[in-house]
Design brief:
Number of domains: 2
Number of strands: 8
CATH superfamily of the largest domain: Spore Coat Polysaccharide Biosynthesis Protein SpsA, Chain A
Largest sheet: 8 strands, mixed
CATH topology of the largest domain: Spore Coat Polysaccharide Biosynthesis Protein SpsA, Chain A
Helix content: 40-55%
Number of helices: 11
Distance between the termini: 38 Å
CATH class of the largest domain: Alpha Beta
Strand order of the largest sheet: 7-5-6-4-1-2-3-8
Strand content: 5-15%
Length: 323
């Protein structure tokens, strides 16, 4: 059993979220205040906003909120690094001050009432608690089908991923310390966290509609995100190329025997359609194969450079401490 009154930090990545930040702050303040009042978490618990190089007034709002509300603080990245890097930056910063950290999006689609259940699961000995959507009623038909297809495809590719789980999760300090040991530049936290291997559980919740603003994950970004996840955690596409190569080799041997047989019986006139189709088919497969291999080489290139995944330009906690 876990001790009571541990310090909880809620990490919220923000990119151009000025439209929702006021309401998000209002709801999270109510939740955090109630948890403290019920002696479920320490009074030192905080909400940490992570500004991911926003071009609107998101950071100005975070600074203003942190001055007015003692339960809120924030960090700002030096430039836009993407959701996964911003989230990691928040997690790695928060673990220095907290015993447990919950990550969630700023758009209020993640049900904050599930936090209570997450804390209960944590106190039962789970280092990681995943927030899992029990339905996608607020999503369009297209988004629902593509999202569910994404999780199923990832699992078929051999990626250990929790079905219908995004980045709404609780992690203990111990789990976060071990997450820090994963040095991948190509981040896909939904695949990394299960690799930690500590005891985990799930909490089911209903996904809400976005409170305001636009989704930061349009179709193009979702496809890129899915591709990053596949190429970062699975070599099955490479093996698929190998299998296609073996099949093509076997077919070429059969075609060779067929050609020799046709020459032997005197029917050596080759069909134009057969030649053209063969050339385009083989050429297409080669180009596709080179493209997939190139993606993996690009990933290796990025990893070998070992550039920092994020740079923090402002940390309001440290600034307040120095005052």
């Amino acid at each position: 059993m876990k001790k009571n009154k541990e310090i909880l930090y809620i990490v919220v990545p923000c990119y151009n979220e000025e439209e929702v930040l006021t309401e998000t702050t209002k709801q999270l303040k109510l939740k955090l205040t109630k948890l403290i009042k019920d002696n479920k978490i320490s009074e030192e618990s905080r909400v940490m906003y992570v500004n991911d190089g926003s071009s609107d007034k998101t950071w100005e709002l975070i600074e203003e909120i942190s001055k007015k509300e003692k339960l809120f603080t924030g960090i700002s990245l030096s430039r836009n690094r993407g959701h996964q890097n911003a989230l990691l930056g928040g997690l790695m910063t928060a673990k220095n001050y907290a015993d447990i950290v919950i990550s969630m999006d700023a758009d209020l689609q993640d049900d904050i009432e599930a936090i209570d259940q997450m804390l209960e699961k944590y106190k039962l000995g789970n280092d990681i608690v995943y927030g899992v959507r029990n339905a996608r009623l607020t999503d369009s038909w297209f988004k629902r089908v593509t999202a569910e297809g994404f999780y199923k495809f990832m699992q078929k590719m051999g990626v250990d991923i929790v079905y219908n789980h995004a980045d709404y999760r609780l992690m203990s300090k111990r789990a976060l310390n071990n997450l820090e040991n994963f040095k991948e530049v190509n981040l896909f936290l939904r695949g990394l966290v299960p690799l930690i291997g500590y005891k985990s559980d799930v909490v089911y919740y209903e996904r809400k509609e976005r409170f305001a603003g636009k989704s930061k994950y349009p179709l193009k970004k979702m496809l890129n995100f899915a591709w990053d996840g596949i190429t970062s955690f699975s070599i099955k596409p490479i093996r698929l190329i190998l299998n296609i190569g073996i099949i093509m080799f076997i077919l070429s041997i059969l075609i060779l025997f067929y050609s020799l047989f046709m020459k032997f019986i005197g029917k050596t006139v080759a069909g134009w359609t057969f030649i053209i189709c063969s050339l385009w088919l083989v050429g297409g497969i080669q180009m596709l194969s080179l493209g997939i291999i190139g993606e993996y080489i690009g990933k290796i290139y990025n990893e070998t450079k070992s550039r920092p995944r994020y740079i923090i330009s402002r940390n309001l906690i440290e600034e307040d401490t120095k005052k």
